[in-house]
Amino acid sequence: MIEIVPLPAFKDNYIWTLRRGGQAAVVDPGEAAPVQAYLSREGLSLAAILATHHHPDHVGGIEELAKGAKIPVFGPKGEPIPALTHPLGQDDRADIPALGASFAVLEIPGHTRAHIAYYGLGSLFCGDTLFACGCGRVFEGTPAQMLASLRKLAALPDETKVYCGHEYTLANIRFARAVDPGNAALAEREARARRLRDAGLPTLPSTLGEERATNPFLRCTEPAVVESANKYLGSRIGDPVSVFAAIREWKNRF
Ligand SMILES: [Zn+2]
Question: What is the dihedral sign for C-alpha 75, 76, 81, 86?
């Protein structure tokens, strides 16, 4: 049985740590210190490192953690990932025998050029592409690419647990309520997320079912979301890529 633990890093990052027996793997270690402290406190050995994309708050700790250790460092091919040993693309797999785990790799460009997600154990590690009730900024790709990537993730089963890179949920829900004001599931989600944050707990993981029901960036064909995008632009658009691009830009200014 693999346990998945969030290690908080920086202001609002999570380093997701998978552990089984005395072995552990970490996803997106932006800094080494929280990982080293956890491993030594728990008496765990690091068996693998997985990176979703090249941003420093996701890869900044890799070099120090991998130093002197003969462990695989998985990450996207085509992005500068420190100490990378296994460059991965669509349909590759990340195997971690020490944990008895294997993940399918999905290419999800948009936030960065070659961003990847890891899917396995009913769980999705999606970095800065899909957030709880939101999505990452489109830095290196196009809105069409980002929307296609989000749709690829949204096609996974409802019960898939979503482990994203940041605790942005409450702010994302506030924006989602502006875009999709009649969505009752959003009000419920906000109350639930607030209770968790008030108790000092992460709002993650969420599930893909929950995201499909409440995340405006996965709902670009819903009439209410299309209408809000049109109000924001003061024009009449209807195609999902334009709707996505409009609400993504609106979120940047929100
Ligand atoms: Zn990023």
Answer: positive
Ion ligand 1: protein residues whose beta carbon lies under 5 Å: 55, 128
Tell me how far the alpha carbon of residue 249 lies from the centroid of ligand 1, in angstroms: 17
Q: List pLDDT tens digits, range 106-151.
A: 999 999 999 999 999 999 999 999 999 999 999 999 999 999 999 9
pTM to 2 decimal places: 0.97
Find the 75 Cα to ligand 1 centroid distance in Å. 13
pLDDT in tens, 33-73: 999 999 999 999 999 999 999 999 999 999 999 998 999 99
Which one of 55, 86, 115, 180 is the catalytic residue?
55
CA torsion angle 174 145 155 117 (round to 10): -90
Q: Report DSSP state, residue 166.
A: B
What is the spatial distance between Cα 215 and Cα 227, in angstroms, rounded to a whole number?
Answer: 16
Q: Is 91 a catalytic residue?
A: no
Q: Which two tokens stand for residue 80?
A: 């500068």
Q: Residue written as tokens 């999705």? A: 124
Annotate 22-45 with b (16+ C-beta within 10 A) or e (fewer): ebbbbbbbbbbebbeebbeeeebe
Give catalytic status of residue 12 as yes or no: no
CA neighbor of 74 nearest in space, from 26, 38, 5, 2: 26
Q: 152-195: per-residue pLDDT in tens?
A: 999 999 999 999 999 999 999 999 999 999 999 999 999 999 99
> From the candidates 28, 54, 57, 115, which is the catalytic residue?
57
